[in-house]
From TrEMBL:
Peptidase M24 domain span: 2-119
Sample GO molecular function, one term: aminopeptidase activity
Pfam families named in the record: Peptidase_M24 (PF00557), Peptidase_M24_C (PF16188)
Magnesium listed as a keyword: no
Name of protein: XPP2 aminopeptidase
Record-linked Gene3D superfamilies: Creatinase/methionine aminopeptidase superfamily (3.90.230.10)
Keyword terms, alphabetized: Aminopeptidase, Hydrolase, Protease
Peptidase M24 C-terminal domain boundaries: 127-190
């Protein structure tokens, strides 16, 4: 129970090289912001560019916000948390979406949206914050060009996939959903 907001773009056919590159760069931005460590009293607008950098590197961008607060049994777009210039500083315990995207008019659109909890980071100097992604949904492997990703991004993705397996797999087993469990295993392989 609660409020959630998760988006996954999928491709049911053979994606073009541009679609794969755009998707991968959106995923890279999602990962870069999700794994960011930042000081206390940092507003979302200050770190928002980390989600756009992989797109900006090749002259691409998106025209929507990078994320918004998510209330518990409240509004799915819960102000004042988020990544806009008028949002409050991020604090431990806040939930926000992280949702970079890319849209090519008349051709295709990509959005990868996760829900993340702001948590205290494990650093030598305190207090620093980071995000814990709580969305346990795999990304479309058909659209990922792993050659574009850094070693750190790949490690993060593999760790996230292991978390999905560890948390969702036992529930699928408990419910005797074998086909769904096999799908989960295939789509969360390293």
């Amino acid at each position: 129970d609660g409020t959630t907001d998760i988006t996954r773009t999928v491709h049911w056919g053979i994606p073009t090289s541009l679609q794969k590159e755009a998707y991968t760069r959106v995923l890279m931005g999602n990962i870069d912001l999700s794994r960011l460590v930042f000081p206390l009293d940092t507003a979302g607008g200050t770190v928002e560019a980390f989600a756009r950098r992989a797109l900006w590197d090749v002259g691409l961008n998106y025209g929507h916000g990078t994320g918004h607060g998510i209330g518990n049994f409240l509004s799915v777009h819960e102000w004042p948390v988020g990544f806009q210039s008028n949002n409050v500083p991020l604090r431990a315990g806040m939930f926000t979406s992280i949702e970079p995207g890319y849209y090519r008019d008349g051709e295709f659109g990509i959005r990868i949206e996760d829900v993340a909890l702001v948590v205290e980071a494990q650093t030598k100097e305190k207090p620093f914050l980071t995000f814990e992604v709580v969305s346990l949904v795999p990304y479309d492997r058909n659209l990922i060009d792993i050659s574009l990703m850094s070693a750190e991004q790949i490690r993060y993705l593999n760790a996230h996939y292991e978390t999905i397996r560890r948390r969702v797999g036992p529930e699928l087993q408990r419910q005797q959903l074998q086909e769904e469990l096999e799908w989960l295993q295939r789509n969360t392989e390293p």
